[in-house]
Design a protein that fits this description.
alpha+beta, GTP Cyclohydrolase I, domain 2, four-stranded antiparallel beta sheet, 8 helices, 6 strands, EC 3.5.4.16, one-carbon metabolism, nucleotide-binding, metal-binding
Length: 206
């Protein structure tokens, strides 16, 4: 299992499996550095809880490649002219590598079938496979779009992400209403403005 390509710029690669004991030890040192009393009942088990959450939930996307998520779960059929598959409002959460703070929002995904079609739930799983890593939102959109085109051989893919970045809403500028929107277009979505307009129209009218 695992990623089937080198990490893209904006995605922090993982070079070894997670070590929960090392992770817990690091959290313990961090809390000590914060001046927290580690004998307090509220934080006594915190290092292990945090390590478990990061290893099993926040970074489990490193254990799933796009090929594993999509590779054997498609059907072959001849698409209609300019047929577009769109799934909107796929909720996701990810971790920014800069401050190790979460961002969460929704993904809108579309592709132009060129023979291979997958179930809608597979697209949601693909979003999670990339989101559950240390990855910038801009890179996340691009990685999802490129994976769809690569693994399904689609004529094009489009991804728009709308997310609340807690590194902006809870620190720094503290703009609680701010939302970041990133997008990526590949193939015919990149070369044909009318297809992008159709896609944007679908997600705008949801």
């Amino acid at each position: 299992m695992g990623a089937d390509r080198d990490a893209a710029p904006g995605e922090t690669p993982r070079i070894a499996p997670p070590d929960p004991e090392k992770m817990a030890a690091g959290i313990r040192l961090f809390l000590e550095g914060c001046g927290v009393d580690l004998s307090d009942a509220n934080v006594r088990e915190t290092p292990h809880r945090v390590a478990k959450a990061w290893a099993e939930e926040f970074l489990d996307g490193y254990d799933r490649s796009a090929r594993e998520v999509l590779g054997d779960f498609y059907e072959e059929r001849k698409p209609a002219a300019d047929e577009m598959v769109v799934v909107t409002s796929i909720d996701f959460q990810s971790m920014c590598p800069h401050h190790l703070l979460p961002y969460r929002g929704v993904a809108h995904v579309a592709y132009l079938p060129a023979g291979r079609v997958v179930g809608f739930s597979r697209l949601a799983r693909l979003v999670d496979a990339f989101a559950h890593r240390l990855i910038l939102q801009e890179t996340l959109a691009r990685e999802i779009a490129e994976a769809i085109r690569r693994e399904l051989g689609s004529a094009g893919a489009a991804v728009v992400l709308e997310a609340e970045q807690t590194c902006m809403t809870t620190r720094g500028e503290r703009r609680s209403q701010a939302r970041a929107i990133t997008e990526a277009f590949t193939g015919e979505f990149a070369s044909r403005p009318e297809l992008r307009e159709r896609f944007v129209g679908r997600i705008s009218g949801r």
